[in-house]
Amino acid sequence: TQAKEIIGHCVDLSLFSSDLWEPALDKFAEATGLEVTLFGADAKAQQGSVHSTPLMKLFNKYGFEPGLFAACARRCLLQSTDRPAVVAEEHGLTVVGTSLVLEGAVVGAAVAGYAFGGFSHVAAVQRWAKSAGVPFESLWNIARQQPPVPRRRLLLHGELLQILGDALLRANHRTRQYEDAVVKLEVRPRRRTSLWRWSRTNCARRLRRSSAGPAF
Known about the structure:
56% helix
């Protein structure tokens, strides 16, 4: 519980809204066939890749959400020093996730999916279609064209996502630090100018009073 409180205080959700994320996540999705969603330290989704897989499009179309992404993200957010990739699976669907770290603290998670854990059989896809409320033929067309992803490869995808995510967080954080420094440097000269003008005006008033002499 203590670790969660520390994480919650140090996270800046704006770090996940940078334009740096979108092209990188899209490239990852295109290369792996897995759509990525970013989660903040509160386990709420923040941003995802624009590139959408056929399976994700089908689920979104019919409003089906098995909850695997959020469940995997919560497990990732519990990590501290050890940060292995996390695989979550349900009914043959799998996702892989990783915690995201900035300055030694877990500040979020990235989860990628969906992948099939094994070869799809008609009976299994029929059960998925019924439970998900999606047409069997649509789901079957996707399932038979999408090869299963071995667990080892899925873990490698998770490790790659960790390296990518941590690097983007650091880059975004440095950019924001630089922008803050520039703003402070721009404010200081204005303050100095205002102080100089105030001092000059104040001195001028004193000089006018002293030159006027005492009043009788």
